[in-house]
Amino acid sequence: MSQPQPSESSILQGNAGSIICFCERITELEIRTAIVLGKAETVDEVSGQTRAGTACRACHCRIQRMLEGKPPQCGGGCSRCDGCGWIAALCACHQG
Description:
mainly alpha; 2 strands; globular
């Protein structure tokens, strides 16, 4: 089932230079472009167009949020740690 697509005017909304996929160094703008201009409707389609999510897959939740027209960061375990830049669930900043 296809997800609602953001409008073309939303391509540049958000932090266009923000890295969404750290393994492949894919930016929010690249993913938004795949969604809007490339007509990607699934995480797999975004991955096919950009390589995002093809390695560790930790960014799949951020890509899915973008497909749903939401900001990529949810504040949960798949968000980027402000301290070290790693995925929060994998970083050592908050571990005892």
